[in-house]
């Protein structure tokens, strides 16, 4: 996951390409892993004789030919899974013979390990055993572990005839309304406020009922106000309500369980021959606006195994980005999903119809999109569906920050013309912002001789030309998103041509 440096110095940026995926051998996809588990039945090596494993015994299984790992007190034989792990053998070997819970949660906190590794279950770590854990090194560009912990927020409330208002004093000047998630039901109100990498909760059983509607306002000093409509207008509340489990809790965001809600498919429209734009409606009482540069997780049962994947939130349109009033209120959102042949989750998502249900989590990420206000030149290099990470950056820069006037340029790499996402809208956007926005397409496998644009793959010339233009301004921003090999090449070329990590941000491709 990409990280920006602490928000106390938001003008400085660092890049992090994320843990790399490896190129798996044919026959070793996630679907192949599912098929293997179904055909073999048991991959643990111990059959039905599940064990009580001591720390000493766990430590003995620490080689590529015999690797056990403990995750949340359960021990798994990962030897048969090594060649199927998209992060590669080396990543798994970091926790060979150890407790890998912290490592797993740092990278895959939204993945159901019990479902994924069910066939590899050896047994439980004995109560008296304490296996050595894996120290999770902070990746380059991550928020430093020495960063001061934010002050504990406080809460208050007040009312008028129509509304009851919960006030949260975060004391964080970078606070934005996107960092507030609200869930309302007949028996409880939960407000989660994200402050840097912490979450603060208001969790109550209200004394009187409220409607499903709410709105959020944030002041410059970090005060958050959440306005709830009273179900009974003019009813006077003597007190706010009864505290529930998480009320006034202030915890590291990674320490909590990944919360899922059931969203409803509103529409599923074609974008290209293999990519769909899916609109989803939030469950009643939920208000969640995913910040720019963030992503969320989807889970589904595929062939008896719970599969999870991350997806980038996009917009209903590039030329009319704010046309959906529900999306602006946090009541709906959009995903652009490519149907990968042999994929585990994407074929199911692309087949969804109006009314179907999807389990989606809270958002995740830490991209500081206020840097878009400070930049003087925005260049984006996107390959294929890496374009999804750029959609909201483009719209925010051109439509929301229209007075900034800085250039916005997109280098878009695809195989053929049929693969270009929102090709017509990109062309229309150039007409709408002729002095600010430009897109250059580069195709690697186009056979149509009428194509007059650039051909080939990303090269030093592509990057050099863009970087030379950017370096004439004081605060350029260079964003990259594609497969990990593409990301590495483009980042290296950008640095070779004079950009520093302060000017580069690499998104991990989410779909």
Q: Gist?
A:
The chain is α+β, with helices and mostly antiparallel strands and 511 residues long. 18% of the residues lie in helices and 33% in strands.
SSE blueprint and pairings:
Blueprint (H helix, E strand, L loop, with lengths): L29 H11 L10 E3 L1 H6 L1 E2 L2 E6 L2 E4 L11 H5 L7 H8 L4 H4 L4 E5 L28 E6 L3 E7 L10 E5 L4 E7 L2 E9 L3 E9 L4 E8 L10 E3 L6 E3 L7 E13 L2 E7 L4 E2 L7 E8 L2 E10 L10 H4 L3 E7 L7 H5 L6 E8 L6 H4 L2 E7 L4 H13 L7 E7 L8 H10 L4 E7 L10 E2 L4 H11 L5 E7 L1 H13 L7 E5 L3
Parallel strand pairs: 1-5, 22-23, 22-26, 23-24, 24-25, 26-27
Antiparallel strand pairs: 2-3, 3-4, 4-5, 6-7, 7-12, 8-9, 8-17, 9-10, 10-13, 10-14, 11-12, 15-16, 15-21, 16-20, 18-19, 18-21, 19-20
Annotation, overall tally of beta strands: 27
Helix content: 10-25%
State the end-to-end distance: 13 Å
Mean pLDDT: 88
- Gyration radius, rounded: 24 Å
Strand percent estimate: 25-35%
**How many individual helices?**
12
Spans of 5+ residues with little confidence (pLDDT < 50)?
Answer: 1-19, 138-146
- Outline: globular
């Amino acid at each position: 996951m990409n990280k920006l440096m602490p928000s106390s110095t938001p003008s400085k940026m660092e890049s992090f390409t994320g843990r790399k995926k490896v190129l798996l051998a044919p026959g070793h996809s996630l679907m192949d892993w599912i098929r293997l588990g179904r055909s073999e039945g048991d991959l643990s090596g111990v059959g039905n004789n599940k064990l009580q494993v001591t720390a000493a015994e766990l430590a003995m299984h620490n080689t590529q030919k015999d690797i056990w790992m403990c995750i949340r007190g359960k021990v798994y034989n990962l030897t048969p899974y090594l060649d199927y792990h998209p992060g590669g053998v080396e990543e798994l070997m970091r926790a060979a013979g150890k407790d890998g819970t912290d490592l797993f949660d740092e990278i895959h906190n939204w993945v159901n390990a019990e479902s994924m590794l069910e066939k590899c279950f050896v047994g439980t770590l004995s109560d008296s055993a304490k296996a050595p854990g894996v120290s999770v090194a902070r990746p380059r560009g991550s928020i430093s572990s020495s960063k001061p912990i934010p002050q504990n927020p406080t809460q208050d409330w007040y009312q008028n005839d129509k509304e009851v208002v919960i006030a949260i004093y975060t004391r964080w000047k970078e606070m934005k309304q996107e960092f507030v998630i609200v869930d309302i039901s007949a028996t409880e109100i939960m407000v989660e406020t994200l402050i840097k990498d912490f979450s603060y909760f208001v969790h109550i059983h209200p004394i009187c009922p409220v409607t499903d509607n709410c709105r959020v306002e944030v002041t410059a000093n970090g005060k958050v106000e959440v306005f709830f409509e009273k179900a009974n207008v003019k009813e006077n509340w003597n007190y706010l309500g009864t505290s529930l489990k998480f009320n006034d809790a202030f915890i590291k965001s990674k320490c909590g369980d990944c919360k899922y809600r059931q969203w409803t498919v509103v529409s599923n429209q074609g974008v290209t021959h293999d990519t769909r734009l899916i609109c989803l409606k939030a469950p009643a009482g939920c208000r969640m606006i995913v910040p720019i540069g963030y992503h969320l997780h989807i889970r589904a049962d595929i062939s008896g195994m719970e599969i999870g994947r991350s997806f980038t939130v996009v917009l209903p349109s590039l030329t009319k980005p704010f046309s959906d009033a529900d999306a602006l209120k946090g009541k709906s959102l959009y995903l652009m999903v490519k149907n990968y042949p042999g994929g585990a989750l994407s074929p199911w998502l692309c087949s969804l119809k109006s009314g179907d249900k999807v389990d989606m989590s809270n958002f995740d990420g830490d991209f500081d999109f206020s840097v878009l206000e400070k930049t003087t030149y925005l260049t984006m290099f996107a390959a294929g569906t890496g374009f999804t990470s750029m959609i909201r950056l483009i719209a925010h820069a051109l439509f929301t920050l229209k007075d900034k006037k800085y250039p916005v340029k997109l280098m878009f790499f695809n195989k053929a013309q049929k693969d270009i996402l929102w090709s017509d809208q990109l062309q229309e956007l150039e007409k709408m912002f002729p002095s600010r926005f430009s897109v250059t397409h580069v195709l690697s496998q186009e056979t149509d001789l009428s194509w007059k644009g650039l051909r080939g793959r990303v090269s030093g010339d592509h990057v050099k030309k863009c970087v030379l233009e950017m370096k004439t301004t004081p605060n350029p921003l260079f964003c990259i998103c594609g497969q990990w090999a593409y990301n590495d090449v483009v980042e290296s070329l950008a640095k070779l041509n004079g950009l520093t990590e302060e000017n580069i941000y690499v998104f991990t491709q989410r779909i």
